Amino acid sequence: MSATQAVNHAALMDGIYRGQRHIYDLTRKFYLFGRDGLIEQLEAPGGATVLEIASGTGRNLAAIRRRWPGAAVHGLDISEEMLKSARKTLGQGARLAQGDACHFDASATFGHDSFDRVVLSYSLSMIPDWEAALQHATTLIAPGGSLHVVDFGTLESMPTLPERLLRGWLARFHVTPQANLHEALLRACAIRALDCEFEAGPWDYFQRATLRRPHG
Questions:
Q1: I want to staple 58 with a disulfide (CB 3.0 to 4.6 A). Which of 17, 35, 89, 197 is the partner?
Q2: Helix H segments across the chain?
Q3: pTM for the full predicted model
Q4: Alpha-carbon distance 18 to 85, whole Å?
Q5: Which residues, at least 6 apart from 67, have a Cβ–Cβ distance to it below 8 Å?
Q6: Residue 206's closest CA among 140, 158, 151, 164?
Q7: Whole-number mean pLDDT of the chain?
Q8: Which is it for strands 141-152 and 206-212: parallel, antiparallel or unpaired?
Q9: Max intra-chain CA distance, the chain
Q10: d(CA 176, CA 173)
């Protein structure tokens, strides 16, 4: 995204979540599936640096901190409204910052050029230039580290009516499931010489992937 587009998108997200952030976690637990499995797969040892891009209310970072105590958690979100909730959720135990997922400067923002674990959880389906955000995230993986992605799947195996209802609901929040996410993940792995593990959830509802950078 250009600087102007990023400003406009930030304003859009603030408008959506100014009120929604107060009930976001309560409502999203009913249809953002696969997040806890991603957290379980992180294998973030004590001292590991973890960055969630588009960290929202901080729900995932709080869960990561509980599951992997000792990990140093960082969160970036384009919405200052969401960051208000994240600061309340996480307190002083996390480094949080406002920024555009497509081209933020990690070193200037967090003091790290790379991270042991990078997380994109149900965020690519909300980012206009989502593949640019994915490609940028791959540049932030430390040697021996990994990028963990979970998002809506193709929904191809869902019954027609539930699929239509879900897509209509998601559109209200400017969420678009990316049918070609798997292909984009494979392209990112080819460009950055990463290993890729991929899985699809029941009914192709969600897709989850781990992109690993070899040591050295």
A1: 89
A2: 3-20, 24-28, 35-41, 59-67, 80-90, 106-110, 130-138, 160-171, 181-192
A3: 0.91
A4: 10
A5: 39, 40, 42
A6: 151
A7: 91
A8: antiparallel
A9: 49
A10: 9
